[in-house]
Specification:
Glutathione S-transferase T1, binds glutathione, GSTT1/2/3, Glutaredoxin, 225 residues, 12 helices, Glutathione-S-Trfase_C_sf, 9% strand, two-stranded antiparallel ribbon, four-stranded mixed sheet, Glutathione S-transferase Yfyf (Class Pi), Chain A, domain 2, alpha+beta
């Protein structure tokens, strides 16, 4: 019975679950739900995830639409990281901007990544918690280099952890994140050519400026694009 992942690679939790499955040799079928085309609002997808969000997982008649670790023993600790993620870092990257993002990065560095272990919770290998948080931070790739450097540059421990997570999940991390490159280039181009960016962005023929998930326009605003 095949595991189906309903994802859009533009979505950071989708990328986390894709890398997790690939890095763990878990076979799955990738079902693309394009947020830009509002496919997550289709009646078929509502059957999969009534919350109408990606990622979602289906295995036979088992449906799951939040990310949970398979290992029950580690679940509680991983949940505490993921809860912190949703109430801090994720709000910083999506809704409430640079100040919250910077405060969250400071806490991540001084508290969650404290100690000698390379990964969260004292682990020697990355868990879904590392992937969830690193994929969230990777959303900063949509920002200008200057802005990214200002926000992330002071956090050397975080930069090392991102590199360690990339290396530990190679080649899947870069493969899954390659979707960001053309979009970043478009955003850069746009910033150079237009003050009124929200109207003109085209990516593969679609107007990503108005159609993309809410995170990106907010990010563009946060990053002064
Ligand atoms: N708590 C969920 C969050 C899922 C989520 O926020 N998905 C976004 C994409 S990153 C989405 O589907 N947005 C579409 C919408 O809300 O309309 C998780 O971590 O898996």
């Amino acid at each position: 019975m095949e595991l189906k992942l309903y994802v859009d690679r533009i979505s950071q939790p989708s990328r986390a679950i894709l890398i997790f499955c690939k890095a763990n040799g878990i076979e799955f079928e990738e079902v693309k739900i394009e947020l830009a085309k509002k496919q997550h609002h289709s009646p078929e997808f509502a059957e999969v995830n009534p919350m109408k969000q990606v990622p979602a997982i289906v295995h036979g008649d088992f449906k799951l639409f939040e990310r949970y670790p398979a290992d029950v023993g580690k679940r509680a600790k991983i949940h505490s990281v993921l809860d912190w993620h949703h109430t801090n870092l994720r709000r910083g990257s999506a809704a409430e901007g640079e100040n919250l993002m910077s405060a969250s990065l400071a806490t991540l560095e001084s508290f969650w990544l404290e100690g000698d272990a390379p990964f969260l919770l004292g682990n020697s290998k990355p868990s879904i918690a590392d992937l969830a948080l690193v994929c969230e931070i990777m959303q900063l790739e949509f920002a200008d280099e200057e802005d990214r450097e200002r926000i992330l540059g002071p956090h050397k421990r975080i930069l090392k952890w991102i590199e360690d997570t990339k290396n530990a999940t190679a080649p899947y991390f870069d493969e899954i994140h390659s979707i960001m490159v053309p979009i970043r280039e478009k955003l850069k181009e746009l910033k150079m050519h237009s003050a009124n960016i929200i109207r003109v962005v085209k990516y593969e023929g679609m107007d990503i400026s108005t159609e993309i998930p809410p995170t990106i326009p907010r990010l563009m605003k946060i990053m002064h694009l």
